[in-house]
Amino acid sequence: MINYLLKSGMLLLVFYAVYKLWLENEKMFRFNRAYLLLSLVFSFVIPLQLISVKPLLGNALSVIQLDGIVIRTSNAALAKDNSGQIITSVLSIIYLVVGLLLMVRFVMNLYSFYKKTKNNGRQFLNDTNVVLIEEPVLPHSFWKFVFINKEELETGKIPLELIAHERAHLQQKHTLDILFIEVLQIVFWFNPLIILFKKSIKLNHEFLADESVNKQFESVTEYQKLLLNFASHKNTVSLASNLNYLITKKRLIMMTKKESRFKMMFKVLIVSLVCVLSLFVFSAETNAQKVKDKSDYDKTISKCIDKSIEKQPEYPGGIDEFYKLIGMNFKIPAEASKQKLEGKAIIEFMVEKDGSLSEFKIVKDLGYGIGNEAIRAIKLSPKWIPGSIDGKPARVLYTMPITIQTEK
Q1: Alpha helices (H) in 284-386, listed in sequence order
Q2: Euclidean distance between CA atoms 384 and 374, whole angstroms
Q3: What is the DSSP letter of 348?
Q4: Structure confidence by residue, pLDDT tens digits, 123-155
Q5: What is the dihedral of CA 357, 359, 362, 368, to 10 degrees?
Q6: What gap in Å lies between CA 323 and CA 79, rounded to an integer?
Q7: Following CA atoms 232, 182, 24, 218 in sequence, which dihedral angle do they give, to the nearest 10 degrees?
Q8: Which 3 state secondary structure label does DSSP give 320?
Q9: How far is it, in rounded angstroms, from Cα 69 to Cα 55?
Q10: pLDDT digits (tens, 9 = 90+) for 69-98
Q11: What is the H or E stretch that residue 135 is in?
Q12: Which H or E run includes 184?
């Protein structure tokens, strides 16, 4: 999971950097909309490696490191180091609590729109379904409705350009984009890049709506003045497309910026190459973690495995049962107890294609027979469910740290 989150985070960072430095200032709003949405999709799908791309260079050794275990003389049974599990449990609880709060907020916002449409009057205005709101509010849109203050509409205080602006949001289905990014933010709330993508998507929506209004009324200067008149209004509605969302100098400049077709095509080509390169880099078959608990552990690379593992081997009953097996059968040699020996030994073994264990090696020993005793205990293991590559059984190398704590 951590590996997946790191990869998706790196992809989000790459795609967002490309957008900010290369695309945001270009008048190619429809392409930018597609780019931002697909960037989010690719960033969370590519690391799943649903499509595996063979690396150009050969694979090195694939090594899987098991959690460290602790064996004490006071009870020969296994005492697995569970500090990592405690941290994981705490982080999981925090993640679920925050995610639940965000989900509740999301549902409440959706329900607020439902109440507005049910509890207020409606009318069709220029083929637009308008909901008339009693409280003071700027025009905003969501799903199939534009929400406008009833009194201001009846007194003619709402210019046609503002209604056209909100109608453009509806016609281009910007609500779907907002709902999509809101759901992603609930699931991946811990990633600040999601918020940056959300801001860029909503700002690009405004570029698109502004473009639609200017094409219809052909008066950019008057429309800019109109927006500035409403810029002081700070009340915005969550989930809705809001008229005054980030009325910045950039937004006003984009209305008058000239297009360069050659420049746009060149940028689209470069962005496409970046996406293809990211697909190859992050979908390539990668190696499992290489463990280097000893300075000369690089020598284990001589045991070459041709391909990286797709499905890891499994111990019958789960890996915790394997730990119990070792803990119950490992006997600290008498001399080690006499010398009050403490430290960490590292054992290496191979899970073969048929699930049997072989190629036992003491990578790091404490002496007094500790390494040999660890191998003896591991050899008592029944056959594992073998790992696989492309549906075929494969060999996988494991390392197992064992910490010895003798009774003082």
Answers
A1: 319-329, 334-338, 370-379
A2: 18
A3: E
A4: 888 788 999 988 888 888 998 999 998 888 888
A5: 70
A6: 9
A7: -50
A8: helix
A9: 35
A10: 776 654 433 445 556 678 888 999 999 999
A11: none
A12: helix 174-187
| Structural contact between residues 223 and 161, judged by C-beta atoms closer than 8 angstroms | yes
CA distance 300 to 315: 23
* Residue type for position 155: T
> What tokens appear for 39 in the block?
């960037």
How distant is the alpha carbon of residue 163 from its chain centre? 37
Q: Is 153 helix (H, G, I), strand (E, B) or coil?
A: helix
Rounded (5°) CA angle 200-204-210: 150
d(CA 305, CA 302): 9
Contact 62, 309 (CB under 8 A): yes
- Chain CA centroid to CA 210, Å: 32
Give dist(CA 77, CA 319) in Å, integer: 16
End-to-end CA distance of the chain: 39
CB contact set of 60 (below 8 Å; sequence gap of 6+): 287, 290, 301, 304
352: Cβ–Cβ under 8 A, 6 or more apart, which residues? Answer: 358, 386, 395
In eight-state DSSP terms, residue 297 is G
Comparing CA positions, the residue from 318, 296, 315 lying closest to residue 398 is: 315
Token pair for residue 119?
């509890």
Return mean pLDDT, the chain: 81
Tokens of 63: 């090594």
- The torsion angles phi and psi of 66, rounded to 5 degrees, stand at -80, 160
What span, in angstroms and rounded, lies between the C-alpha atoms of 340 and 335?
8
**Reported pTM:** 0.64
In this structure, of 85-89, 159-163, 346-350, the range with the lowest mean pLDDT score is: 85-89
Average pLDDT (105-110) is 94
Give the three-state DSSP class for 379.
Answer: helix
